[in-house]
Amino acid sequence: MHTFSLHLRHESPDGPWIASCPVQxxxxxxxxxxxxxxxxxxxxxAFEAAGVKIDRSxxxxxxxxxxxxxxxxxxxxxxxxxxxxxxxxPE
Length: 91
Description:
Elements: E1 3-9, E2 17-20, E3 30-32, E4 34-37, H1 40-50, H2 54-65, E5 70-75, H3 76-82, E6 85-87
Antiparallel strand pairs: 1-2, 1-5, 2-4, 3-6
């Protein structure tokens, strides 16, 4: 099973929290998507529902709070549950 990079950013205090999953061109059968969340809490709830525990994402979220984009590794299953990865693959 592949692993993917979950990219996080929050560009303005009143703006949405953004999660995306870029896919390398040589990885056929996958399309990365971008998802917006109204708040950090909404994003954290989606993470928990997808199986991404807060202790895994805390460091990345702290970076975003400090004004930087950040990322963490997630599984294919977690990315699909988050709605940031589309796959044509039977995996």
